[in-house]
């Protein structure tokens, strides 16, 4: 697969899936590596209009 093809491929999850993923990894927000992922997922969730049922973790 070409790099240009790879860049075009993105995982697709529903808003509810994204909400569940965020809730699941919330416990790891103390870890900087997870915080970065959480922030990226939160940005995607916000773009989809998904509101997490728990508090949103912000980057430190």
- Indicate the radius of gyration in whole angstroms: 13 Å
Shape, principal axes of CA atoms: globular
Number of strands: 0
Largest sheet: none
Helix content: 55-70%
Percentage of residues in DSSP E strands: under 5%
Number of helices: 3
End-to-end separation in angstroms reads 36 Å
Structural summary, described in words:
It is built from three helices and no strands. By secondary structure, the protein is mainly alpha-helical. The longest helix is centred in the middle third of the chain and has 17 residues, at 32-48. The N and C termini lie far apart (36 Å). The protein has one domain.
Key terms for this structure?
60 residues, mainly alpha, 0% strand
Provide a quick synopsis of the model:
The protein has three helices and no strands. With 60 residues, the protein is mainly alpha-helical.
Please write out the topology.
Blueprint: H1 3-8, H2 15-25, H3 32-48
Helix pairs in contact: 2-3
């Amino acid at each position: 697969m070409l790099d240009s093809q790879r860049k075009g491929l993105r995982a697709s999850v529903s808003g509810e899936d994204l909400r569940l993923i965020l809730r699941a990894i919330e416990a790891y927000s103390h870890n900087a590596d997870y915080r970065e992922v959480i922030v990226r997922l939160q940005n995607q969730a916000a773009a989809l209009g998904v509101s997490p049922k728990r508090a949103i973790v912000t980057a430190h």
